[in-house]
């Protein structure tokens, strides 16, 4: 199988991944009862060597709902009737999940409104005030 490359700096070692195979449901004719084509790939981000402590903490918060009680992330693939293709698909799914979990949002930089924006705002407020003040009662004069 080999190591799983998630990003250039995050590579999950092969010995941290565990594979299990089962008979897949769905179409397949008589072959479905004989071949274990469904792939279940397990990875434990809690004890992994692939992530730095800061990345591990970030990934744990992002993937918290997807982890088992033992702290494992389980990815299942039964897309095709071929075990090897399902294995590749499960690895790709795991890499994509971890890649998405590693993304950190860009921090917001505080900015101030420009002088022109402030002037336009005040001008609009004064214009609105004039419209409203002109709604008063008309005098008999």
Molecular structure report:
There is one protein chain. With 141 residues, the chain is an alpha+beta fold. It has a single domain (4-102), classed as 2-Layer Sandwich (Double Stranded RNA Binding Domain). Helix content is 35%, strand content 17%. The protein has helices at residues 53-62, 83-102, 115-133, and strands at residues 4-7, 10-12, 17-22, 38-43, 73-77. Strands 3-4-5 form a three-stranded antiparallel beta sheet, with helices on one face. The chain has a two-stranded antiparallel ribbon with strand order 1-2. A hairpin with a 2-residue loop joins strand 1 (4-7) and strand 2. The radius of gyration is 29 Å and the shape is elongated.
């Amino acid at each position: 199988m080999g190591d799983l490359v998630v990003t250039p700096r995050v590579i999950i070692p092969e010995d941290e991944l565990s594979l299990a195979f089962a008979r897949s449901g769905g179409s397949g004719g008589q072959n479905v009862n004989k071949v274990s084509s469904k792939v279940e790939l397990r990875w434990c981000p809690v004890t992994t060597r692939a992530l730095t402590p800061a990345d591990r903490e970030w990934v744990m918060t992002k993937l918290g709902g997807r982890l088992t009680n033992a702290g494992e992330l389980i990815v299942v693939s039964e897309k095709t009737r071929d075990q090897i293709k399902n294995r590749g698909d499960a690895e790709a799914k795991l890499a994509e999940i971890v890649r998405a979990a590693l993304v950190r949002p860009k921090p917001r930089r505080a900015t101030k409104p420009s002088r022109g924006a402030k002037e336009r705002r005040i001008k609009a407020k004064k214009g609105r005030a004039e419209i409203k003040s002109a709604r008063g009662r008309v005098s008999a004069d």
